[in-house]
Specification:
alpha/beta; eight-stranded parallel beta sheet; globular; TIM Barrel; 284 residues; 13 helices; binds zinc ion
């Protein structure tokens, strides 16, 4: 089987995960105009096998600010062990847990065999990544050679509710919050997730300036990609952009169908779909 792509941004919707998400899963499904349904990990693995794609699974934790207990990282590790041909796992941490979060990052690498940390969502987790209090976390991730993936730009969390459920958008700005840590941790691989509207240009600038910073193109229908994003993907940032769907928000079918209408060069398409992710994840 020749691999066609690595979907860099996928969330589980199995029974355990949906239960842990509680009301939040309903709000997000509503926002995307979807019905909330569970998909077992075996079904999801089969769907990706049929697409000849692999998937990077991620979750997030904001237990200190929301009181919502996330599915333990052991769950994602178990899912990866069950379908190692398809899944690659990232671990979730709540930065406000400090030393506990730092130890969890270490455990994700050493015990759980996960490949990264994410999705961190500064807006929803109510933290600024460049706050020095969180630097020990990025230091640990760098030491463990874990990729760290941050949500950037507009977020579905809270969208369409009064006050956006209290979440503020500015923490999702790439500059300075992600640019600072990319500068201060040159050995850390950072992914700024999503086209980062309304700060798309900032994401592009950081990716162009810092070789350790990548963009995943997930969670945003490619037909709405800003023209400058398409131009950068097709030229100077062709080695820095990663295919991602943000399933269940978007399906890989919709994403690729729309992406293929953007006039991306075939050799660039292959990099975005596959080769760049392989390099970021250090896959053979
Ligand atoms: Zn996100």
């Amino acid at each position: 089987m020749e691999l066609q792509g690595i979907d860099f941004h996928v969330h589980l919707r199995d029974k355990e995960t949906v239960q842990a998400l509680g009301a939040r899963a309903h709000q997000q499904a509503r926002y995307f105009g979807q019905e909330l349904k569970t998909v077992s990990v075996d079904e999801l693995a089969d769907e990706y096998r049929a697409r000849r794609m692999r998937a990077v699974l991620m979750n997030s934790s904001d237990i200190t600010t929301s009181g919502v207990h996330p599915v333990p990282n052991d769950h994602i590790a178990e899912v990866v062990r069950r379908h190692p041909d398809v899944f690659i796992g990232f671990g979730a941490v709540d930065p406000w847990q400090g030393r506990v979060a730092q130890d969890e990052i270490k455990r994700c690498a050493e015990e759980l065999g996960l490949a990264g940390i994410g999705e961190l969502n500064p807006g929803r987790q109510k933290f600024y990544p460049n706050d020095r209090r969180f630097y020990p976390l990025w230091e640990e991730a760098a030491a463990q050679q874990l990729v760290v993936l941050f949500h950037s730009g507009f977020m579905a969390s809270g969208a369409g509710t009064p006050g956006g459920m209290g979440f503020k958008l500015d923490a999702g700005r790439p500059i300075p919050y992600l640019d600072d840590i990319a500068a201060d941790f040159p050995e850390l691989t950072i992914v700024g997730a999503h086209p980062s509207w309304p700060w798309s240009e900032e994401n592009l600038a950081v990716a162009r300036h810092k070789s350790n910073f990548y963009i995943d193109l997930s969670g945003w229908a490619p037909k709405y990609f800003p023209e400058s994003l398409v131009r950068h993907v097709n030229s100077i940032l062709q080695d820095k952009c990663l295919f991602g769907s943000d399933w269940p928000a978007l399906t890989p079918e919709r994403w690729t169908a729309e992406f293929d209408q953007l006039g991306i060069k075939p050799e660039v398409r292959r990099k975005v779909m596959l080769d760049n992710a392989r390099r970021v994840l250090r896959l053979p």
